[in-house]
Specification:
Mean pLDDT of chain B: 87
Radius of gyration of chain A: 19 Å
Oligomer: heterodimer
Strand order of the largest sheet of chain B: 1-4
Distance between the termini of chain A: 51 Å
Strand order of the largest sheet of chain A: 1-2
Number of strands of chain B: 4
Mean pLDDT of chain A: 86
Largest sheet of chain B: 2 strands, antiparallel
Order of helices and strands of chain B: HHHHHEEEHHHHEHHHH
Structural class of chain B: mainly alpha
Low-confidence stretches of chain B: none
Order of helices and strands of chain A: EEHHHHEEHHHHHHH
Radius of gyration of chain B: 21 Å
Structural class of chain A: mainly alpha
Distance between the termini of chain B: 19 Å
Largest interface: A-B, 40 and 39 residues
Helix content of chain B: over 70%
Largest sheet of chain A: 2 strands, antiparallel
Helix content of chain A: over 70%
């Protein structure tokens, strides 16, 4: 068997694949955080809870009404996104324009509530969700086995990431968004409903998290606490990429997934800490993150 | 009063007022002290000690957040480091007296705090919070995987030992008065720091950092020192906690603990001296009362709700709101 640095190729590529998949989730989640922070200056500590809600709603919809995966892929993010808009409208709006730290504290409280309530209803053991039949099985690439579902996750996550980046950086709507956050009064003057834009942006960021949750439902164990530790990692990813940098969030997300996978292959004990280590090193040399603009 | 009041008279009046205020403060403090001294006869001492340990933790955190404006989201690391270090030393070196163990734990947290400070101090606001959070996560993962901490099980059976080799701390009453003495000492220290010229500079940095820079202060140095003192006191709180409960667990290192100390400080009133103490008392009590009753599974959501309410409705916290109320209504 082919060996690379003393590790069988199949093992290495298997870990790399897991790394890329985790990276795709990190990218989706950190992208949502970056959109929300970059455009609204809100530190969304409830992001992990929204990701969890996406997965949980998928499972619950299936159990209650037999809603299948494909429908859930649209419905769950919409439901969770609407929930996010409610939170923006009733809570976050009240502290707009104040120190960012209050948004962090507020959303932290919201996350505690959501997670705590759902833990009481569903417990902390994983809920089951089986993937659609279409994705059963996989393809043998010769040096490794690639399950179809994992390939699908990578492809669709990348497409969504790229689409989001394109809309925000290259389209007129994106320009409105960016302008609205630069100078909301001026944009109001141009007849643009900025508060609505803010609500929708928050809702969209939340939808991205929920979408990641739906994708995660068939491969990770779905529990009310699944988002809380992921969230901390994703925050590290956002900081490494440069807060508010849309492209940076995507690239760094995938990169960090891969680094984590490699660490798991070569030195497992460090695998859960490696991203934080990278963050410390990056910040020492590039205080604004890899893709952050000079403050 | 007639129109011929001169400035000397006004000065006298102000001094009189100041004196009266000081007297009032002294009286309040005296009453509080008496209450604290008598408390273990009315309440379970271990519960009181828990409050005191968390109060010290919150006071330490508030020095950084409330007075200097730096939101550390990694203070659990210092609490845990103090606790583990003290716990390990007291468990493994039976010749060690308790205070040596506690001092060692505090020093360990101080060293770690210095490292954190140097790595994070140039970042501002949210970045600062995120960097401290990430550093604390590194520490958490280190403790999860180290053998000496007992991993998920934690460190059990830490002996309380004898203070100065004489006073038996296995006795809850002795232990309580020791913890109380340390707490009061630290509280006075923080009070002293905050009212000193150094503390004034910290407040200036909080209000407007660029202005403090342009006034010629080496802002980074001030912030680093504040961070280190805060970390040391947080470590001390952790050390004492491990002696009180004879236990050091992974919970103390988890980022939820960093969130909890923020909640305590915020609820009590950040930037006030008494606020964190009131906040810690409140939160520990809420958790304890809920745990007894039918709502014991709802502690987290209720704490979350308190978080949300505080941020939305009374951001000055309990003590801050009372102060505002007094100022408005009682002159």
């Amino acid at each position: 068997m082919t060996m690379i640095f003393g590790v069988p190729l199949a093992v290495l590529s298997g870990q790399l694949l897991i790394g890329v998949i985790n990276g795709a989730f990190y990218a989706l989640l950190s992208l949502g955080l970056a959109v929300i922070f970059g455009l609204l200056k809100i530190i969304n500590f409830a992001h992990g809870a929204m990701y969890m809600l996406g997965a949980l709603v998928t499972v619950v919809l299936f159990d209650l009404m037999g809603v299948n995966y494909w429908v859930a892929l649209f419905v769950a993010p919409l439901l969770v996104g609407a929930f996010g808009i409610l939170i923006e409208y009733f809570l976050l709006r009240r502290i707009a324009g104040q120190d960012h730290i209050y948004s962090l504290l507020l959303t932290f409280g919201v996350a505690l509530i959501i997670q705590g309530v759902l833990t009481n209803i569903y417990g902390v053991s994983g809920l089951r969700y089986s993937m659609p039949d279409l994705f059963k099985g996989g393809i043998n690439l010769g040096f490794m086995f690639l399950p179809y579902y994992r390939a699908w996750v990578i492809v669709v996550a990348l497409l969504v990431c790229f689409g989001t980046w394109f809309v925000i950086e290259k389209t007129k709507l994106g320009a409105y968004l960016r302008a609205g956050t630069e100078d909301s009064q001026l944009m109001q003057g141009f007849g643009i409903n900025v508060p609505l834009l803010v609500s929708l942006t928050y809702g969209f960021g939340v939808m991205l998290a929920a979408f990641a949750g739906v994708l995660a439902a068939p491969i990770y164990s779905v529990t009310p606490v699944m988002g809380s530790n992921t969230l901390i990692v994703v925050f590290a990813v956002v900081v490494i990429g440069g807060m508010g940098s849309i492209g940076g969030a995507i690239i760094t997300g995938i990169l960090m997934g891969v680094i984590e996978g490699l660490t798991k292959t070569f030195y497992p004990p460090a695998s859960s800490a490696v991203i934080f280590l990278v963050m410390v090193v990056v910040l020492m040399f590039r205080p604004n993150g890899l893709f952050g603009k000079e403050a | 009063m007639n129109n011929s009041v001169n400035s000397a008279d006004i000065h006298k009046v102000i001094v009189e007022q100041q004196k009266a205020q000081d007297r009032k403060k002294m009286m309040v403090n005296g009453v509080l002290l008496l209450l604290l001294l008598a408390a273990p006869f009315a309440f379970y001492p271990v519960f009181l000690m828990k409050i005191l340990c968390f109060a010290l933790f919150a006071v330490a955190f508030n020095l950084l957040f409330g007075f200097t404006g730096l939101l550390s989201f990694g203070h659990a690391a210092f609490l845990a480091t103090g606790g583990y270090t003290t716990g390990y030393l007291l468990s493994h070196y039976s010749g060690l007296t308790t205070e040596v163990g506690i001092i060692a734990g505090t020093l360990a947290a101080t060293v770690m705090g210095t490292a954190f400070a140097l790595l994070s101090i140039r970042r501002q606001g949210i970045y600062f919070a995120m960097v401290t959070l990430a550093l604390a996560q590194l520490v958490f993962f280190f403790y999860v995987q180290s053998d000496f901490t007992g991993g998920e099980d934690g460190m059990h059976g830490i002996p309380r030992g004898k203070l100065l080799g004489v006073l038996d701390l296995e006795d809850n009453l002795n232990m309580y008065y020791f913890v109380l003495a340390v707490f009061i000492g630290c509280y006075l220290l923080v009070q002293r720091i905050v009212s000193s010229p150094y503390g004034q500079v910290l407040k200036a940095i909080k209000q407007n950092e660029p202005r403090a820079v342009s006034l010629g202060y080496n802002v980074d140095r001030y912030k680093i020192l504040a961070f280190v003192i805060s970390a040391a006191l947080a470590g001390l709180a952790g050390s004492m906690k491990s002696v009180v409960f004879q236990l050091a667990s992974l919970n103390d290192a988890h980022w939820h603990m960093s969130g909890e100390v923020i909640l305590m400080t915020l609820v009590g009133g950040m930037g006030t001296l008494l606020g964190p103490v009131v906040g810690a008392t409140f939160v520990v009590n809420v958790e304890y009362q809920l745990a007894q009753g039918p709502l014991r599974d709802w502690v987290d959501p209720i704490l979350g709700g308190i978080f949300v309410l505080t941020v939305l409705a009374f951001r000055s916290g309990i003590v801050g709101e009372i102060q505002k109320f007094m100022k408005k209504n009682l002159g």
